[in-house]
From TrEMBL:
Function: Transaldolase is important for the balance of metabolites in the pentose-phosphate pathway.
This protein's name: Probable transaldolase
Catalytic center residues: 84 (schiff-base intermediate with substrate)
Organism per entry: Robertmurraya beringensis
Pfam families the record matches: TAL_FSA
Length: 215
C-alpha cells in the first residue's frame, strides 16, 4: 500500500514529502478553503512542482458539462493532476469522458461497494471510500475496503482503491491488510505512524549506555 497525504497545506506537504514515503497528494474543497491568500490553481502549481505523483484536484460543478470544463482546465495545470469527481450519475458521465481523453480520475465520496463498482466501470483511475465517515455513523468503514478489494480482484478491475477519511494509525494498518492500494492520510496521522514508546525507550537506553563506554 502506498501513502498519499490528504491536505492542501504546503508546509505539511513539504515536510511529509521530505520523509521519502509520500507518493501523492489528495485535496478537497474543504481542505483548500483552509488555505488563505493563495488561489487553488497556484497551490496546485506549487504541489505538482514538488510531488511528481498523483495530485487530486476536485471539481465544484455538479453537472457533467461543468465538471468536464473545470476538470480539463485543472488537468492542464500539470500532467500529474488527477481530477476528483463526486460519486453521482453526472460525476460518472464526466469520468467516462475524462477516461477517453486520458485524464486520470479519483471518484470521491464512495460509501458502498456498488458505487465503487460503478465508478470502476466508468473508467475511474481511483475510487476513494471514506473509512472514518462510515465509522462515524456506526458502520465499519474498513469492511467496505475489503469488499471493494474482493470485487475488484474477482472481476480483474484495475481501478485503485484509495482508503480515505483516515483518522488514526489503526485505520492505516487495517486498510493495508484489507487490500487498499493507497491510503490518503492527514499529516498528523502520518507523523503518528512513526511513534512507538519502545523505540523512544530503546534510543534513550542506547544513548545512556554509549555514555558509559570506557574507550
Ligand atoms: C479524500 O480524498 C478526502 O479528502 C478525505 O480523506 C476526507 O476525509 P475527512 O472525512 O476527514 O474529511
Amino acid at each position: 500500500m502506498k501513502f498519499f497525504i490528504d491536505t492542501a497545506n504546503m508546509e505539511e506537504i513539504r515536510e511529509a514529502y521530505s520523509l521519502g514515503v509520500v507518493a501523492g497528494v489528495t485535496t478537497n474543497p474543504s481542505l483548500v478553503a483552509k488555505e488563505k491568500n493563495v488561489s487553488f490553481e497556484d497551490r496546485l502549481r506549487e504541489i505538482t512542482a514538488l510531488v511528481p505523483g498523483s495530485v487530486s484536484a476536485e471539481v465544484i460543478a455538479l453537472d457533467a458539462e461543468g465538471m468536464i470544463r473545470e476538470g480539463r482546465e485543472l488537468a492542464a495545470i500539470a500532467p500529474n493532476i488527477t481530477i476528483k469527481v463526486p460519486m453521482t450519475p453526472e460525476g460518472l458521465k464526466a469520468v467516462s469522458t475524462f477516461s477517453k481523453e486520458g485524464i486520470k480520475t479519483n471518484v470521491t465520496l464512495i460509501f458502498s461497494a456498488n458505487q465503487a463498482l460503478l465508478a470502476a466501470r466508468a473508467g475511474a483511475t481511483y475510487v476513494s471510500p471514506f473509512v472514518g465517515r462510515l465509522d462515524d455513523i456506526g458502520f465499519n468503514g474498513l469492511d467496505l475496503i475489503s469488499t471493494i478489494a474482493d470485487i475488484f480482484a474477482v472481476h480483474g478491475l484495475e481501478t485503485e482503491i484509495i482508503a480515505a477519511s483516515i483518522r488514526h494509525p489503526g485505520h492505516v494498518t487495517d486498510a493495508a491488510l484489507r487490500g487498499a492500494h493507497i491510503a490518503t492520510i492527514p499529516y498528523k496521522v502520518i507523523m503518528q505512524l512513526f511513534n512507538h514508546p519502545l523505540t523512544d525507550k530503546g534510543i534513550e537506553a542506547f544513548l545512556a549506555d554509549w555514555k558509559t563506554r570506557e574507550n
